[in-house]
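User: Can you recover a sequence for this backbone? Please restate the input before giving your answer.

Assistant: Of course. Working from this structure:
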């Protein structure tokens, strides 16, 4: 078990409160990329306290949520008990997805978690393994070009416009930068170049279908550059199980 990932056990309650206890997903870009899932078997990878899993189940999917943190899963199960919607939760490592059969899912999602996981190749190849040929995978991450180890907001004092400054883009690896929100996300993330994500998807046999970089309204700088990157891809038909 990776020590960095396991730190979510220590902040599970704060994290649940920060994102909204028992909250529903409210991300139109993610929802559009996922599309219709009624009757599909879908895996929510690194599901945390189950927000995305509950969204998928509400759309008619048969959902299995997987997360390393027992404390986050305890919260997910508590939400399921309070409002049963049919989600099954499994404690496990996203880097292996051990216990899930190969080719057993129509689709999978990973919402704002890939950048928290040490082995990108491990998780993407595991996702590809559990998908049926042609199965889909939708994920979102903090944008690798604009959430780098050295970033900041710069105000142009001439016209008061806001700009995003970026540095150390090529410095891949773990850093503490993005995770200091009300003590709910103290674990930082793994910065990777955009090309690293694309190459890892290719090695896993996952073919990119769509990418989205929507503006966000909660801060002026995110109207200038994208804060998040969304990707929908599918498992190539020829990938061996």
């Amino acid at each position: 078990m990776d020590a960095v990932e396991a730190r979510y056990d220590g902040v599970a309650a704060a994290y649940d409160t920060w994102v909204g206890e028992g909250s529903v997903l409210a991300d139109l870009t993610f929802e559009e990329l996922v599309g219709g899932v009624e009757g599909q078997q879908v895996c929510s990878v690194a599901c945390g306290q189950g927000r995305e899993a509950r969204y998928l189940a509400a759309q008619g999917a048969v959902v299995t949520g997987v997360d390393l943190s027992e404390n986050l899963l305890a919260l997910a199960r508590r939400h399921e008990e309070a409002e049963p919607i049919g989600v099954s939760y499994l404690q496990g490592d996203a880097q292996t997805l051990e216990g899930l059969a190969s080719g057993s899912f129509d689709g999978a999602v990973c919402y704002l978690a890939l950048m928290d996981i040490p082995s990108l190749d491990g998780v993407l190849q595991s996702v590809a393994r559990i998908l049926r040929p042609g199965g889909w995978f939708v994920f979102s991450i903090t944008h690798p070009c604009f959430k780098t180890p050295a970033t900041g907001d710069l105000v142009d004092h001439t016209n008061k416009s806001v700009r995003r400054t970026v540095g150390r883009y090529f410095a891949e690896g773990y850093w503490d930068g993005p995770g200091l929100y009300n003590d709910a996300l103290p674990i930082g993330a793994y910065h990777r170049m955009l090309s690293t994500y694309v190459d890892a998807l290719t090695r896993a046999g996952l073919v990119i279908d769509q990418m989205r970089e929507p503006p966000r309204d909660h801060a002026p700088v995110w109207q200038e550059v994208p804060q998040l990157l969304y990707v929908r891809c599918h498992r190539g038909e020829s990938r061996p199980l």
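That completes the design. The first helix runs from residue 3 to 6.
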